[in-house]
């Protein structure tokens, strides 16, 4: 039997992305975000929700751009650090030993060591309450060649992205392949 546990954000899984931006002084910054995901296929767009109090908030508004750096599980400690430290007080890239790379397409940096990057131009913002949703049009995706499959597209098992569990405040990795989309459920189609 199901038990009501109240209203909350227990949607599983959520990503552990690093959102890149330049602050008012032109310093590269990144922040860990889990309130994020795909929001449109055409145009390709992603969304990330931030509090106004975050250092990245004003930077994204002013530059009208951000990047999404998708880390592999081997960067768990750096990803967690990017979520607990403030760019107002510390250069997170330097402290974590990561490389900020200036995008040639948008006015934002990305993490050079991470296997998958989405470069985004800000389309719009939506005030939701405690968080402001930033919707970015993906102008380019950059991927390390070793995470691409035979079809030239990124493969989740090769990226080995981090997943975040909001109810547990815990990171997880990706498990085994369970089935193929658009074919596994065909037996129910009449």
Topology, pairings included?
Blueprint: E1 14-15, E2 17-22, E3 28-33, E4 36-40, E5 45-50, H1 55-63, E6 65-70, H2 76-84, H3 92-96, E7 100-102, E8 109-111, E9 116-127, E10 132-143, H4 156-159, E11 163-165, E12 170-172
Antiparallel strand pairs: 1-11, 2-3, 2-6, 4-5, 5-10, 6-9, 7-8, 9-10, 11-12
Concise account of the structure shown:
Pfam families: Flavin_Reduct. Belongs to the flavoredoxin family. The protein has 190 residues and is an alpha+beta fold.
Give an overview in words:
The chain has 190 residues and is an alpha+beta fold. The chain has one domain: Pnp Oxidase, Chain A (Roll). The protein has helices at 55-63, 76-84, 92-96, 156-159, and strands spanning 14-15, 17-22, 28-33, 36-40, 45-50, 65-70, 100-102, 109-111, 116-127, 132-143, 163-165, 170-172. It has a seven-stranded antiparallel beta sheet with strand order 3-2-6-9-10-5-4. Strands 1-11-12 form a three-stranded antiparallel beta sheet, with no helix packed on it. Strands 7-8 form a two-stranded antiparallel sheet. β4 and β5 form a beta hairpin. It is globular and about 60 Å long. The chain starts with 13 loop residues before the first strand and ends in an 18-residue tail after the last strand. The mean pLDDT is 95.
């Amino acid at each position: 039997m199901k038990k009501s546990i109240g209203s909350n954000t227990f949607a599983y899984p959520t990503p552990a992305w690093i959102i890149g931006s330049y602050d008012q002084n032109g310093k590269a910054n990144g922040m860990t975000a889990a309130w994020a995901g795909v929001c449109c296929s055409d145009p390709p767009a992603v969304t990330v929700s931030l509090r106004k109090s975050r250092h990245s908030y004003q930077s994204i508004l002013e530059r009208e751009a951000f990047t999404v750096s998708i880390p592999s599980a081997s960067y768990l400690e750096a990803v967690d650090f990017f979520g607990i430290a403030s760019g107002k007080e510390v250069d997170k890239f330097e402290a974590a030993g990561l490389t900020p790379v200036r995008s040639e397409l948008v006015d934002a940096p990305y993490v050079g060591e991470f296997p998958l990057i989405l470069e985004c131009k800000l389309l719009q913002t939506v005030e939701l309450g405690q968080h402001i949703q930033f919707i970015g049009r993906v102008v380019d995706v950059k991927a390390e060649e070793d995470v691409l499959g035979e079809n030239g597209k990124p493969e989740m098992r090769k990226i080995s992205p981090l997943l975040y569990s909001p109810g547990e405040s815990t990171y997880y990795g990706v498990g085994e392949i369970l089935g193929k989309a658009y074919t596994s459920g065909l037996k129910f189609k009449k």
